[in-house]
Design brief:
With 156 residues, the chain is mostly helical. The protein has helices spanning 19-22, 29-45, 56-65, 78-87, 98-102, 105-110, 117-124, 127-152. It has eight helices and no strands. Helix 2 (29-45) runs antiparallel to helix 4 (78-87).
Length: 156
């Protein structure tokens, strides 16, 4: 992978690709900052900020030609809106570095809250129970598929 040296390697999902990657230009960690901004915006609003229903080519044109997406300012704090805006500059050189983002007022505002993400996830989903449910569904699918195949072959 040449991405450590800022070279385009062609990997990634078009949905979260930065403008410089779409233009097939060299890229750096700034492309990841773009993706981070889109991801956080999507998590906050509950929907992806671009129209993905018209195919990947149209999505790429939206990313290149439309203004950068932003959260509704009346629904989010100024710090959050500023954080997203900083992540989604079209010009990669204008985007902050990881170190700069860690010093952003949005991060600083919540830095001392002591969020325990692992405890939160455990409170929302019991991983062991969820894995059991997934395993049961997989087994049911496999058994059903095998039985249908045996029936189609006239064995049962």
């Amino acid at each position: 992978c040449k991405c450590w040296f800022g070279q385009y390697n062609g990997y990634g999902t078009v949905t979260y690709m930065s403008p410089e990657r779409i233009r097939n230009e060299n890229y750096s960690y700034a492309a990841d900052i773009w993706s981070l901004g889109l991801t956080i915006l999507e998590c906050a609003t509950g929907k992806f900020p671009y129209n993905v229903n018209e195919g990947p080519a149209n999505l790429m044109l939206q990313i290149l030609d439309d203004p950068s997406p932003a959260p509704p300012e009346d629904a989010y704090t100024p710090e959050f809106c500023s954080f997203i805006k900083d992540c989604l500059w079209k010009d990669a050189d204008a985007r902050p570095t990881c170190e700069q983002l860690l010093s952003h007022p949005f991060i600083k505002r919540y830095e001392q809250t002591g969020v325990d993400l692992a405890a939160y996830v455990r409170g929302v989903v019991n991983p062991t129970e969820r894995l059991k449910q997934i395993a049961e569904r997989c087994l049911l699918f496999i058994i059903t598929s095998c039985l249908m195949a045996l029936k189609d072959l006239g064995i049962i």
